[in-house]
# Entry
Amino acid sequence: MSGRAIRVARLKSLALLVLAALAPAARADIVTRMPTRARVVALTFDACQAGTTMHLDHGISDYLTARKIPFTVFMGGRFARDNAADVAALAGNSSVEIENHSWSHNNHMPELSDERVLSEVTRAEQEIRARTHRHTRLFRFPAGNSDERTVALVEGLGYTVVHWRWSEGDPDPKVTADDLVRNTVERARPGDILVFHINGRGVHTAEALPRIVDGLAAKGFRFVRVDDYVHGPAPPAAH
# Structure
């Protein structure tokens, strides 16, 4: 190879390195369904509060526990603090997965500083760990609102971000129990992550849940915890 050809090759290599350095950092996609073709779905419930104290919906938790159905709770730190006894009881059930849903349930986390975003996650982890003696590995943004920066910050703590394919909308009183049953049973596909509320905001969720479970079971679906199929590395211990 001539000297000129060598110089051209070096320049091309340098240009590629510069482009790579300027390219945005790659990030994992937000998980909206479990990576499987098996006929399984995950029942997930948000347990969160912002200002007003919220409480565990026992109509949901007692039903699922009695039926021995696994489920996942994305829990806010304030909720864990103010419902310590119920949270400890949930943690005593191995069928219940408890994950991170931020400290204060700020619906606009992309507007927060880096420091505040990290604090929302780590402070919730500390509170949940104190009440359950478990670490959290999955994170759900309040209202599902995130951007590339906030996702990267959360992933940097070792979390996998888990949302949903569609929203059930159960806090809306106009969404009836019949609506919840029909929409869920008709829309569910293998690997779906279903999202409801277990903090008293699911207006008709407890009423609809037995029919949802029976309807999905009749279609051959099994119920699993999200972490049966979605695993993130254990986040570092919060200090």
